[in-house]
Amino acid sequence: MCGRYDSHRSTDDLSAYFDADDDTGGDVPGRYNTAPTQPVRIVVYDPERERRAIQAARWGLVPFWAKDPSIGSRMINARAETVADKPAYRSAVRSMRALVPMDGWFEWRVGESGKQPCYLVPRDAGLLTAAGLFSWWDGPDGRLLSCTIITTAAVGELRTVHERMPLLLAGADRAAWLAPGADAAELLSVPPSDELVAGLEVRPVGAAVGSVRNDGPHLLDPVPVAAPATLF
């Protein structure tokens, strides 16, 4: 599962990185501690402009047929293995795919002393790109753009933290995910590369990240982890 992530870079930086127009209007600042239902930046393909665009979306997908947007809080993640068959996601898989920029993400590793928050981040401070989906919902206050992050089975060292991880895309796979009319089935079935995963650091961080009210670079600072107590 991916229930909290870091996307603190400016929208200008993301626009340059993805060669995408900025459609956010400056309304979505970067956050170190992004939580479900908050506004986030996603990258989509705009067929009218034949260009990529960065748009503001609420994290937690609200299907077009939903009675109200509260359903989105239960749809922050979609499993790669079943997303193409689920009623809430299958139409989006065909034509409403997105890229979700991340500087890193957080998981809570369960150990003998309880849950330890960990920050999973590229050792080279590079930008991560997760596969996502988006949807438009027409409500009484206008149209709502929402999104979900696709997850896959964790691999390598990441399995020691959590059984799931974001479906990370790199290189040509990013363009393929956004390509109009592309069959997404192949990308959904391919796990993140060993090279990409090997480049990730699993960094224990402080408990402050657990509160959505907290934000700032201090949340990424490493903390020492106490060794398990022994009988001798």
UniProtKB/TrEMBL annotation:
Keywords: Covalent protein-DNA linkage, DNA damage, DNA-binding, Hydrolase, Lyase, Protease
The protein's Enzyme Commission number: 3.4.-.-
A biological process from GO: protein-DNA covalent cross-linking repair
Cited Pfam families: SRAP
Enzyme's top EC category: hydrolase
UniProt signal peptide: none
InterPro entries: SRAP, SRAP-like
One GO MF term: lyase activity
Protein family (similarity comment): Belongs to the SOS response-associated peptidase family.
Protein name: Abasic site processing protein
Originating species: Actinocatenispora sera
